[in-house]
């Protein structure tokens, strides 16, 4: 009852426009004060706020955000867009295809959907609008493409899930590769079909010399995902250290090789990344007290029992979990949702013997899909703001991408190999 | 929704804030940059130490964690000050300018009240944290709780300055936005 009241209050505060983190804090505090045990010491709020972000693995979060910021200011993102145009610009809907391809490569570097959407959207949404694309569609393409960011490694939500569940970060990162590529494949087909129907133009095919030139120019940026995977896979560096090394690499490329980044800009770049990181990390911190309230109210056990009572068939339970997470994704941001609901869902996965990597990939992809639909579809909100178009037009144009995302989620649910084959192939069988 | 990372402070075309407020903003910015540099520095130093320097120092990650906590709470204060935080502005799509302005005041009041409450109830944790050492460093958890209090203190100051700005019709120039909201 108390948790239901807190969730209702949270929703109300969210819809009137209070900061998402503070909405969670206020709702959790009210829940604590009204707790049936006679009220709980409110000092638990600052205590859990700090403990929710006091984690060595979370150090990677600001570093991946910083890497994205350096890439945007250092000319790496611009070269990736030019490279994508040279490679896929001759397909129907040239700019939408280039947007998807750029986001695919960016996904392998930054790990944050917000960074990717902001970086590519600022350049490509105006370009698509100038090319005659519907504004809502231009924003929807960027929103869908940016969703790949937290699915293809490195991924901040995968990192958070790994911390919560004690799974291998490397395995979880690899679990996102095939679903991410499936999403990408479907998205580019959708872009081509929509472009054909609406008459969005293709560019002239770039000659091989131009493609080679763009590849050479973008090679420093294209090498980043390879470096990350090679560094982690070789055991030379951890996932967190990889994030730091990529920042230094991007700094060197931006300052000394591309020379698009000036020394005097570094303060602005670091400040922008620090503030964005603070905003993202505070979401995780604010989920701490709410998660504590849920645990104290034994709501997790009741949810788990209710789900397990539906069926003993793991597939049916996965469908139920997917439905629950889809509803959760409508209301909560992915990171707070992970903190609040993963502890609830882990016993279900363990009891039914569902592969932990498959389960993790399903949870993360499902919550990422939540970023594509209202009312709290963060990517829809961001791209509609960048594209200066109505929220509803973006939400409407996102529907085909949303539908394909649900198909991929269905495939991941029915066929565990979609998410588990690559981690097994690369890292062998054995402990999660 | 304002995407995080966009819309830097004081660039909305109005007059810049008065000198003391600018100094506070600059100090906050440097604190944030220093925290992020510390996170990056300790993380990269850990790799260099392992393969090149091979020193006996092994608390890189602990210092990086302290900087991370500082980054979180000072970062959200700067984010809310610059209106770069994550919020859902559904009301803005339907409500009139007058309703939006009134709602903005109420929401700022709620945030201010919460930050002051966290300052008050969090103060006790400084004493508790004193007895919790952070392994490998001379620091204790007092530094972690102090980071929370620093962030909430800054947020309370930023929001109070915003109220002064509103009450004086923008003449006090104590907020990053100087026009009517």
Write out key terms for the chains shown:
heterodimer, A: 432 residues, mainly alpha, 2 domains, 0% strand, globular, B: 181 residues, 5 helices, elongated, disordered N terminus
**Terminal-residue CA separation of chain A:** 36 Å
Largest interface: A-B, 70 and 64 residues
Our count of helices of chain A gives 21
**Total beta strands of chain A:** 0
What overall form of chain A do the CA principal axes indicate? globular
Radius of gyration of chain A: 21 Å
Query: How are helices and strands ordered from N to C of chain A?
Result: HHHHHHHHHHHHHHHHHHHHH
Strand content of chain B: under 5%
Following the backbone from N to C, one meets helices and strands of chain B in this order, namely HHHHH
Total count of domains of chain A: 2
List low-confidence stretches of chain B. 1-12
Radius of gyration of chain B: 19 Å
- State the secondary-structure class of chain B: mainly alpha
Question: Quaternary state, please?
Answer: heterodimer
Sheet having the most strands of chain A: none
Task: Give the helix level of chain B as a range of percent.
Answer: 55-70%
Structural class label of chain A: mainly alpha
Describe it.
The complex is a heterodimer of chains A (432) and B (181). In chain A, 77% of the residues lie in helices and 0% in strands. Chain A has 432 residues and is mainly α. Chain A folds into two domains: 1-42, no CATH class; 57-427, no CATH class. Chain B has 181 residues and is mainly α. Chain B has one domain. Chain B has helices at 19-53, 60-81, 90-94, 97-130, 141-167. Chain B is elongated. At the A-B interface, helix 1, helix 2, helix 3, helix 4 and helix 7 of A face helix 1, helix 2, helix 3, helix 4 and helix 5 of B.
């Amino acid at each position: 009852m108390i948790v239901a009241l807190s969730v209702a209050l949270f929703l109300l505060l969210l819809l009137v426009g209070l900061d998402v983190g503070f909405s969670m804090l206020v709702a959790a505090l009210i829940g604590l004060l009204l707790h049936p045990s006679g009220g709980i010491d409110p000092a638990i709020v600052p205590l859990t706020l700090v403990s929710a972000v006091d984690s060595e693995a979370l150090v990677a979060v600001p570093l991946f955000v910083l890497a994205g910021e350096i890439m945007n200011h250092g000319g790496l993102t611009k070269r990736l867009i030019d490279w994508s145009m040279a490679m896929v610009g001759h397909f129907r809907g040239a700019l939408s295809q280039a947007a998807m391809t750029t986001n695919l490569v960016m996904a392998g570097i930054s790990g944050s959907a917000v960074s990717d959407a902001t970086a590519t959207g600022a350049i490509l949404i105006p370009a698509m609008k100038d090319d005659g694309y519907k504004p809502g569609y231009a924003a929807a393409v960027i929103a869908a493409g940016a969703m790949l960011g937290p699915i293809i490694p490195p991924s901040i939500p995968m990192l958070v899930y790994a911390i919560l569940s004690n799974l291998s970060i490397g395995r979880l990162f690899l679990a996102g590769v095939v679903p991410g590529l499936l999403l990408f494949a479907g998205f580019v087909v959708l872009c081509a079909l929509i472009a054909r129907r609406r008459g969005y133009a293709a560019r002239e095919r770039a000659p091989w010399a131009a493609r080679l030139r763009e590849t050479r120019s973008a090679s420093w940026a294209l090498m980043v995902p390879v470096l990350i995977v090679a560094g982690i896979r070789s055991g030379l560096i951890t996932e967190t250290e990889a994030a730091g090394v990529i920042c230094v690499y991007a700094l060197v490329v931006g300052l000394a090789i591309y020379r698009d980044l000036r020394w005097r800009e570094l303060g602005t770049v670091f400040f922008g990344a620090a503030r964005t990181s603070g905003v993202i990390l505070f979401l995780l911190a604010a989920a701490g007290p709410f998660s504590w309230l849920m645990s104290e109210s034994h709501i997790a056990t009741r949810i788990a029992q209710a789900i397990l009572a539906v069926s003993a068939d793991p597939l049916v339970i996965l469908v139920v979990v997917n439905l629950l997470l889809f509803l959760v994704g409508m209301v909560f941001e992915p990171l707070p949702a992970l903190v609040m609901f993963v502890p609830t869902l882990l016993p279900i996965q363990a009891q039914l013997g569902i592969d932990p990597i498959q389960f993790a990939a399903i949870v993360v992809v499902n919550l990422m899909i939540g970023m594509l639909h209202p009312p709290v579809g963060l990517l829809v909100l961001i791209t509609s703001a960048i594209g200066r178009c109505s929220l509803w037009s973006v939400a409407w144009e996102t529907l085909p991408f949303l539908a394909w995302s649900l198909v991929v989620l269905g495939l991941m649910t029915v066929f565990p190999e979609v998410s588990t084959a690559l981690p097994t192939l690369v890292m062998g069988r054995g402990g999660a | 929704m304002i995407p995080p990372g966009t819309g830097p402070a004081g660039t909305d075309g109005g007059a810049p804030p008065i000198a003391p407020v600018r100094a506070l903003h600059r100090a906050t910015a440097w604190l944030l940059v220093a925290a992020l540099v510390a996170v990056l520095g300790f993380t990269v130093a850990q790799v260099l130490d392992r393969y090149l320097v091979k020193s006996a120092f092994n608390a890189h990650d602990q210092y990086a964690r302290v900087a991370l906590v500082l980054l979180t709470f000072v970062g959200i204060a700067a984010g809310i000050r610059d209106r770069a935080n994550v919020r859902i502005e559904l009301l803005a799509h339907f409500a009139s300018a007058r309703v939006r302005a009134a709602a903005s005041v109420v929401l700022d009041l709620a945030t201010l009240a919460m930050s002051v409450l966290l300052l008050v109830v969090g103060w006790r944790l400084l004493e508790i944290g004193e007895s919790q050492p952070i392994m490998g460093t001379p620091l204790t958890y007092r530094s972690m709780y102090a980071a929370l209090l620093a962030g909430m203190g800054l947020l309370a100051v930023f929001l109070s300055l915003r109220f002064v700005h509103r009450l004086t019709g923008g003449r006090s120039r104590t907020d990053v936005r100087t026009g009517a909201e």
